[in-house]
Amino acid sequence: MNVETALQRLKEKGYKRTKQRERIVEIFVQQDQYIAAKDILKAIQEDFPGVSYDTIYRNLYLLTEEEILETTELGGEKHFRLGCETHGHHHHFICTTCGKTKSIEFCPMNSINENLKGYDVENHKFEIYGKCPQCH
Amino acid sequence: MNVETALQRLKEKGYKRTKQRERIVEIFVQQDQYIAAKDILKAIQEDFPGVSYDTIYRNLYLLTEEEILETTELGGEKHFRLGCETHGHHHHFICTTCGKTKSIEFCPMNSINENLKGYDVENHKFEIYGKCPQCH
DNA sequence: AATTTAAATCGTAATCATTATTATTTTTTG
DNA sequence: CAAAAAATAATAATGATTACGATTTAAATT
């Protein structure tokens, strides 16, 4: 996913192209890892000193809604990263030190043979936490 | 796990038996589901009107540390439940409406054949979210 | 290009979960 | 009972997230 594709997808839905929104997407394209809202704010303030959390969160949630970003909760904070739809549905190993991830192609939902009759499955989460080779 | 066993385990580690702590464990034994800190507070205030969040969280974390409780993050809030060590390591289906859970005996870590050489696995999470038959 | 309008932003305040602090109280042990 | 350690109460502080009114901006329209 690149910046243009993402903004194009938003445009089709009637969302406007703003410099701030553009920059937010850019940051995610540059740093291919989970990032906390406060770090997005910090990064974007170099170009737009006045941005508010309102703008950050509104965009992060919009981008997640439009499936441009993925989200997970790390240490009590929501983190976001570019959704890597390039290789389909998958999960992540997440480094608890640097936040970098490694894709895990295996999805446990495919292997599950529990009886979930009567249960309406909406979502699932499979994440492995630990130290990546660099942080080990 | 019953109240006595839990408090006994704490005693062995040198932790004291207090009425508040006792009541907290009791609540978890009675309600076998994930509960948010604020709901524990609400429940315990019926007996101890003056309890503070400090007491709640200190005990929740202590009980988690001592592996009497398990924890997960739901909607931006930490939730706790009695650890069901009776049937070993397992995962959960969690109802997004009532919070009740169904145990999933399958653990994806047993089935994983990804190459995680060089990665130090500390933890993992596999949770399925949706509606239970009652809330469906 | 100017006008219009809906969307987005800014600046700031409010909310909510969680953590910290200090004085006081309680449990346990000798 | 007395002493020491642990736990609690009351309250304040922190930090993430959400909300809001006024203003600005992007994009569509004339």
TrEMBL record, chains A, B:
<feature type="binding site">
    <location>
        <position position="132"/>
    </location>
    <ligand>
        <name>Zn(2+)</name>
    </ligand>
</feature>
<dbReference type="InterPro" id="IPR036390">
    <property type="entry name" value="WH_DNA-bd_sf"/>
</dbReference>
<dbReference type="InterPro" id="IPR043135">
    <property type="entry name" value="Fur_C"/>
</dbReference>
<keyword id="KW-0678">Repressor</keyword>
<keyword id="KW-0804">Transcription</keyword>
<feature type="binding site">
    <location>
        <position position="135"/>
    </location>
    <ligand>
        <name>Zn(2+)</name>
    </ligand>
</feature>
<dbReference type="GO" id="GO:0003700">
    <property type="term" value="F:DNA-binding transcription factor activity"/>
</dbReference>
<keyword id="KW-0963">Cytoplasm</keyword>
<keyword id="KW-0862">Zinc</keyword>
<dbReference type="InterPro" id="IPR002481">
    <property type="entry name" value="FUR"/>
</dbReference>
<dbReference type="GO" id="GO:0000976">
    <property type="term" value="F:transcription cis-regulatory region binding"/>
</dbReference>
<keyword id="KW-0408">Iron</keyword>
<dbReference type="GO" id="GO:0045892">
    <property type="term" value="P:negative regulation of DNA-templated transcription"/>
</dbReference>
<keyword id="KW-0238">DNA-binding</keyword>
<dbReference type="Pfam" id="PF01475">
    <property type="entry name" value="FUR"/>
</dbReference>
<feature type="binding site">
    <location>
        <position position="95"/>
    </location>
    <ligand>
        <name>Zn(2+)</name>
    </ligand>
</feature>
<dbReference type="InterPro" id="IPR036388">
    <property type="entry name" value="WH-like_DNA-bd_sf"/>
</dbReference>
<feature type="binding site">
    <location>
        <position position="124"/>
    </location>
    <ligand>
        <name>Fe cation</name>
    </ligand>
</feature>
<comment type="similarity">
    <text>Belongs to the Fur family.</text>
</comment>
<dbReference type="GO" id="GO:1900376">
    <property type="term" value="P:regulation of secondary metabolite biosynthetic process"/>
</dbReference>
<protein>
    <submittedName>
        <fullName>Zinc uptake regulator, Fur family</fullName>
    </submittedName>
</protein>
<feature type="binding site">
    <location>
        <position position="98"/>
    </location>
    <ligand>
        <name>Zn(2+)</name>
    </ligand>
</feature>
<keyword id="KW-0479">Metal-binding</keyword>
<dbReference type="GO" id="GO:0008270">
    <property type="term" value="F:zinc ion binding"/>
</dbReference>
<keyword id="KW-0805">Transcription regulation</keyword>
<feature type="binding site">
    <location>
        <position position="89"/>
    </location>
    <ligand>
        <name>Fe cation</name>
    </ligand>
</feature>
<dbReference type="GO" id="GO:0005737">
    <property type="term" value="C:cytoplasm"/>
</dbReference>
